[in-house]
Each structure stands twice: as C-alpha cells, then as structure tokens.
Amino acid sequence: MAKNSTTGMLIPKDIPFGIFTRTIGALDSREVIGAGFMHKAGNHNDHVDYDPPNYSLVYVISGEGDYVDSSGKWYHLTPGCYLQRIPGCKHSSFVEPNGEWRECFIDLGPRMCEALIGMRIIDPERPTGKAGASQGLVDEFAMILREIRKSSDFQLPTLLPRMLDLQQRILGISQPSKPDQTRETINKACLVLSHDLEQRIDLREMCRENGWGYEKFRKDFQDATGISPGNYRIRCRMDKARGLLKSSDMPIGQIAESLGYSNIYEFSAQFKKNAGISPRQFRAS
C-alpha cells in the first residue's frame, strides 16, 4: 500500500483527542449530538463487524485505511475522504500499518439518522466518498466540538443546523454530478410533472415529444430523485392536496376532482396511503 500522504491539514492546538457527546432530551433518550478527534496508531483494527448505535460522519485528516461494508466491499480511505457509520449497517475498518491515522467526526442520534435517510440526505449505499483535503473543514469540526463542550442544555439544539450544514456540504462535495444534459432533462421533467395535476400524463409520449429515451429517462429520474416519475407526480398531488385541505373550504370531493382523481374514494385511499390518515382527519388536525 502507498505510504500516508501529507496534506498539510492541522488539528488546532486547543483541541484534545477524544469523543465529546451530549444527550438531547430525557435521561433515557438515545438522541445525541457529539464531535471528536481521534488518533489511531498503525495496524489498528477498528470495529470488526460493528453495528453503530449512532450515526457518525468521519473525515480523514491523515493516514490511510480501509472500510469494509456488510457485503464485503472494500473502500480505501486517504486524507480528505469521509466515511459514514450508520445504525443497522455493519462494517469493519482498518488502519494501514506504519501509518498515523487522524480523524475528526460528528455524531447524531439514530432517529435523526433515520430522518436524514428518509430525506435522502444520507445514502446507506454510499458509505464513503472523497470531499477533498481542506483545513477549513477541519476547523469547522473543531468549532462544533468547542460549542458542544461549552453549550448549555438549552443551547444544544441550536448546534444541529450547523452540524447538518457541514455534513451536507461534505456529502455534496463528494457526490458524482450528473452531466449537464441529464440535469436539464430531470429539471424539465419535474416542472412538467408538477403542473396541470388534474390531467393524466403519458410518460412515453412525454419522452417522445422531448426526444428522451424512455428507459434511460426513468432510470436517471429514479437515481436523481429517489422515486419513479409516476410516484413523483403522485407526491406533487399529495402536496397540493395538503395545502388545499388546510387553506381552503373546498369540499374533499372537489379537491379530488381538481387533482385528476375519478372519485373521492380513489383520492382518499391515495391520501391515506401517503399521509397515514384520511383527508378529513388531516383537515381536522
């Protein structure tokens, strides 16, 4: 294996090595926020088949190592890479011999992690990536650590936006970007699918009119949004329905008709499947 590379990233002098975690909520709450800096000597086997209780985003400062997911796939890590420890996703990690591994990280509780997975901010299928070596990122981890250590219990929730902003920028930096043409196609499709909701759209016809290959379009759309084009249009209808139910006195049957449903029963079944409660219950809530 190649020797550890030198990146020039430095750990601020006032930052000690260790983990600093604070619980948010009741004594038995599993929701936490935390941060830390770790130094691991070479030939260190860290967490073999480990199922983490919390979510961690780890940023590599120096050294080299390997992350092995539950399927046995290996990912080689160098300075500027990140790895994610996700509850329910077992993994193993190893530090290269003769190396000096230094990392910084933030921790979030399992419910927050579940919510971020649901919003597709965290992708369990992409546990590692490369954000690039940046002293600025190291300094931001250090700033969050300082705030966690000194904040009162009442101040702790205000740190979450800063932590999520750092996390999303690191994950966003490393995401492979779609070609410009593909992005334009998806953006145009989203605009078409989110308008004229009372009408039925033939996806194959829409693709023919725009010169898009149907199967490629469906795959690209699913990859970009996480749902199929048909389900995206249903989601747009449900978003519009929520707004109408809360902001207007329109009868539910009229709302159903305005969104292209043939009858109130079809609309109600779709709404309950999506929202978990009936339109009438949602309006009264």
What does this protein structure show overall?
With 285 residues, this protein is α+β, with helices and mostly antiparallel strands. It folds into 2 domains: 18-174, Regulatory protein AraC (Jelly Rolls, Sandwich); 180-284, Homeodomain-like (Arc Repressor Mutant, subunit A, Orthogonal Bundle). Helix content is 41%, strand content 21%. It has 10 helices and 10 strands. It has helices at residues 110-118, 135-150, 160-174, 180-193, 203-210, 214-225, 229-247, 252-258, 264-275, 279-284, and strands spanning 18-23, 32-41, 45-50, 55-62, 65-69, 74-77, 81-85, 91-95, 100-108, 128-130. The strands form 2 sheets. The protein has a 6-stranded antiparallel sheet. A 4-stranded antiparallel sheet has the order 3-8-5-6, with no helix packed on it. A hairpin with a 4-residue loop joins β5 and β6. α2 (135-150) packs antiparallel against α3 (160-174). Mean pLDDT is 88; it is low at 1-5.
Number of strands: 10
**The top level CATH class name of the largest domain:** Mainly Beta
Count of spatially separate domains = 2
Mean pLDDT: 88
Summing up helix and strand content along with how strands pair, one would put the structural category as alpha+beta
CATH structural fold name of the largest domain: Jelly Rolls
End-to-end Cα distance, whole Å, is 60 Å
Largest sheet: 6 strands, antiparallel
Strand content: 15-25%
Radius of gyration based on Cα positions: 23 Å
Unreliable parts: 1-5
Shape descriptor reads: globular
Give the SSE string: EEEEEEEEEHEHHHHHHHHH
Helical stretch count? 10
